[in-house]
């Protein structure tokens, strides 16, 4: 099983690394994808991560799941057409998509939230609702293959829900 974690500068450190490590503990191969393969990206709190792949190297058919971290990275990630197309393809294929905190911005820009049940950091609640989503103030919300969460303290519930959705799809 393979998952893809998107990355750009100023990702929220825990929201990137906690899911990566939990999935790897569960035996899932996780690749990091950024604008440039081999580039080092620095999180909000200084933790680095190196992209395994560039956005242009990704084929949605090669992955079973997608994760989008929070922080300020989502505001950058949503500007890449390849990222938005990847999100749309993963959604169309009903593969698990995990998003936490500000990561909802990427799903908004991909235009996949109409009528979907989600959560996010309360700071982008209006953005989520304006994109047609139904927003809940809960640690983790599951809507089919879409799993969303609010912030770092919710990571245990988020990853429990994400792993359940991931393994249900096998």
TrEMBL record:
GO molecular-function term, one example from the UniProt record: peptidase activity
SUPFAM superfamilies (alphabetical): Class I glutamine amidotransferase-like (SSF52317)
Gene3D superfamilies linked to this entry: 3.40.50.880
Matches recorded under InterPro entries: C56_PfpI-like, Class_I_gatase-like, DJ-1/PfpI
Domain DJ-1/PfpI: 1-164
GO biological process per UniProt: proteolysis
Keywords of the record: Hydrolase, Protease
One Pfam family here: DJ-1_PfpI
PROSITE patterns in the record: PEPTIDASE_C56_PFPI
Family in the record: Belongs to the peptidase C56 family.
Protein known as: DJ-1/PfpI/YhbO family deglycase/protease
Organism: Heliomicrobium undosum
């Amino acid at each position: 099983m393979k998952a893809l974690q998107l990355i750009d500068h100023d990702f929220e450190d825990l929201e990137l690394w906690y899911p990566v490590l939990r999935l790897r503990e569960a035996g899932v191969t996780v690749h990091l994808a950024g604008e440039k393969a081999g580039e080092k990206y620095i999180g909000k709190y200084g933790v680095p991560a190196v992209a395994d792949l560039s956005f242009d190297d990704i084929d949605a058919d090669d992955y079973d799941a997608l994760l989008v971290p929070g922080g300020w990275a989502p505001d950058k990630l949503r500007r890449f057409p390849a990222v938005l197309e990847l999100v749309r393809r993963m959604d169309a294929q009903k593969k698990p998509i995990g998003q936490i905190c500000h990561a909802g911005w990427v799903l908004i820009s991909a235009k996949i939230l109409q009528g979907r049940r989600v959560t996010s950091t309360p700071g982008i609640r209006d953005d989520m609702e304006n994109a047609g989503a139904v927003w809940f103030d809960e640690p983790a919300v599951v809507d089919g293959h879409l799993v969303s969460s609010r912030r770092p303290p919710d990571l245990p519930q988020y990853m429990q829900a994400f792993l359940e959705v991931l393994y249900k799809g096998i």
